[in-house]
Amino acid sequence: MCLLGLILISISSTMQRSAISFMYAFQDPMDEAKTTNKHYNIGYDIPGFTPEKFDYIAGDAQTIIYAFLVLFLGSASDMFNRKNVILGTCFGWSMATYLSSFALTFNQIFILRCLKGLFMAVSGPCSYSLITDWVPPENRLTAYSIYSLGVQFGGPFASFNSQLIDWLGWRATFQYNALIGFIILGLCIVIFDEPEKGRFDIAHSVVNNPEESMKNDSIGYALSEAPTRKRLDIKQ
Fold it and tell me: pTM for this one?
C-alpha cells in the first residue's frame, strides 16, 4: 500500500507539472472562438505570456531548478523524517498548483512554477530512500521498477487536462489538479509509515544484532563455530 501511495504521488506530480502545456496549447477545432477565449487558453488571459516565455516556463524554469536542487535537497531524506518530508513536498506543489489558478501576471505563474520544481526536487530521492527501507533487498529492484510506472502512467493521465480545460477552463483545471493532489496526500497520511533507516543494511544488522547476523551468514557462522567445536572435541 505504501508503494501504491508513492505511485499515486508521482502520477499527480506529472499531471500538475504538464497541465500548463495543455492550457497554453488549448484548441477547439469545432469552435474557433473558444480557442482564443481567456477562460480556456492561459496564453490569452495572462498579459505578455508569449511563446518564448512559455518555452522557458514549461521547460527551463522547472527543469533547471529541479536538476540543481535535487543534488542538495535530496539529502533531506537522510536528515529528517522521510514520511513527513514527502508528504510536505506533496502538499507544497499541490498548493503551488492551486495558487496558480489565481495568477494574474506571468511573474506570478513563473514564481509558483519554480516553487513546484523546488518541492519536486525533494520527492524523488526521498521516495527511493523509503522504498529501500520498506522492501527487502531481494525484491527491491522490482519495487523500483513498479515505482517508475508512476511517471509512465502520469503521461497518459496528464492528457485528461485537455478535457478538464474544455469543461472547466484553465483556472479551475489548476484547482482540480490540486484537489487530486490533496486527496492523494490525505490517503498517504493514513497508509505511510516511517521505516527504520537502513534496517536491511548488513552493517546495521551486525551492529544491532551481531549473533543473528552471523547465523544468517552461513559461511561466517561455520568458520566462527569450527574452532569452538574442535576445542571441545580435544577436551573430550
Answer: 0.78
